[in-house]
Amino acid sequence: MKSSAMRDLMALTERADIISLAGGLPDTASFPAESFAAIMSRVAVDSTARSLQYGPTEGLAVLKGCIAEVMAEEGTEIDPEEVLVTTGGQQVIDLVCKTVVDPGDVIVAEAPTYPGAVPTFCSYQADVVQVSLDEDGMRIDELEATLDRLEAQGRRPKFIYTVPTFQNPAGTTMSLPRRRRLVEVARERELLVLEDNPYGLLRYEGDPLPTLFALEGGDFVVYLGTFSKILSPGVRLGWSVGPRPVLEKMNIGKQATDLCSSSLTQLFVAAYFAGGRWQDYVQSLREIYRRRRDVMLDSLAECLGPESRWTHPQGGLFIWATLPDYIDTTDLLARALDEHVAFVPGRAAYVDGRGGSSMRLNFSGVGEADIREGVRRIGEVVREQVELYGTLTGSHRIVAPAEPEEPARPDPDLADVLHLPAPPERRQRPGAREG
Amino acid sequence: MTRVAVLKGGRSLERQVSLKSGARVQDALERLGHDVVAIDVGHDLVARLRDTAPDVAFVALHGRDGEDGTVQELLEALGIPYTGPGVSACIRCADKVLAKHHMLDAGIPTPDFFAFNETAFKELGAADALPAIEERLRFPIVVKPAGQGSALGIKFAAEPKDVPGALVAAFSYGDKVLLEHHVDGRDLAVSIVDGEALPIVEAVPREEDFYDFEARYEFGRTEFVCPAQLPGGLSARAQQLALDVWRVMGCRGFARVDLMLAASGDELTVLEANAIPGMTETSLLPQAADAAGIGFDALIERIVQLAE
Predict the structure, then answer these.
(1) What's the pTM value of the predicted model, to 2 decimals?
(2) Among the partner residues B152, B164, B209, nearest to A392 by beta-carbon distance
(3) Is A7's Cβ below 8 Å from some Cβ in B?
(4) Which of A270, A236, A263, A258 is nearest to A49 (CA)?
(5) A72 touches chain B (CB under 8 A)
(6) What is the ipTM score, two decimals?
């Protein structure tokens, strides 16, 4: 988010009296208090000195075993020795930038991309080039064309950043053929890919797909995992596996940043995994989130008119909705805050001003009743603006966001079509040229 | 030692800026040796003011409640002296439309405009008048919410097809919007303390080839020059105009008046007056004071002394 006005607006979404569909918060209230207390006591008694002590930069061996277990659950076999434990997944993004990006270097990202990665990329003064995605994830044909164009300019991206599974913010998942092709492209051109996979285990329908890292030839993939969405963001633990030279440099970068991640929370997670019930908890989260997703999809179908479209994610935490192009979702947020409801304006997911009519909606952080009420209120302010626009233009014509021939209430199987707004036309300086 | 309650935060869209202004004012007041109480304005405002019984309230609020006379009215009711303009001046400044009417009545030049409530469009068919309005105002046109202080909701319309979307955006912030002829030229801000105009600050967009109305409000995309380098006599004229606005609005303590100097010729017009200008590191009033040789602490002390 570059605009300070938008940043200030987003700060208001955290008010207690707001139904916030803006965050990306997992439902930590579903974690049993007794288990939490029992695990904490065990760590306190069994590992007093260790948990209060520094640990190795790359992380405690016992936690790396847990990480191998999580990755195996998604069909990815790793050697626990190769893991770099980090302070949340966000630190992986930061460390990769720190390791390979110099000011002015190109990073290729999806359009839209994870809003939280944008400030990181900007803080390393990277030039972020965004490649469209559709219902099958990042468009690899466009990626290749972009890479060719950059090459012709003598510019070589430092890495390609992607959230292939249940993308944040779009909710879409990269198809297997595209995953294969992406890995091939990376190898052919010897380009790093940063695969951000926080949500892979939160699948509510459809068959799992292999991670890019696990694919044949995924040697150029730096993988990012996290405990944030399958256990707790409060433990601040993520990890990375990938090409050894890159990981070694990231390790040095991490030493400089924070020496090591918390021993206390690493031992907490290890003790929790030793209980052997972590998959059950993930399963319970899947059930909670699947219901919340369904409630949100139903509410959207009920409350947003035919002039709006939204994605149908098979997992993860987000739905991406696109309104008619005359609605600016940053301004809409100001109106929505009056009605005590919040979302993330689409512009936050772009570096080039696109996304003005889109919004990211989160369905994991609040209960079903709040989702229904929140979407109802959003529907209300959208309807208000659609009507006002109709009045202003003297017509009540329906302006669809991208493809007017799309069905109004999409069939769930067809609904995961992502509509992306076109780049804004460059505005002319008033009076400077004949307009 | 004076006990000063710094009122900041609140629930307006400009909460974050206000928190920054407030924190900076607090630091200055502490350095000056005052007994400082910080109040994040909310439901318990009156109770907190009664409990702390300050000698003076420093109003560091922006936008709704803090800048529109509401908090000032409460302070009047409680008999607590406060910094900055009084209730009536706040009411006049916070409503851009009202402010422009006062300017027109007093013969102060302000860009041509029309303003409407949402009901005018919904109930009276005002949309049918848009072509006539556009013809009268001439493009480019700026559409603004009447009551929003920051850059939020301000849209730029280069041609008729941009106007409806711009109006929809502006109505997101309130019931009244302003359509104003956009004056192409130089952005000037005249800060005033106790009826005395400070050196003028000019906001210069960095990317000259890509003019985006919002660009000037984004960090790093705008450069501030103080004192603004203006052709002979114009600085004095701009300052005089700002003082005229100050008088017409009935301001006291401090305020900031924003003007445009037309790119062609030497025509000055007044856009608006801000009753509670920002006090952050990058805000214009402290920059202007600095250029006049008044340090931040001295500025804050003076503003506290002027509280009524």
Answers:
(1) 0.87
(2) B164
(3) yes
(4) A263
(5) no
(6) 0.88
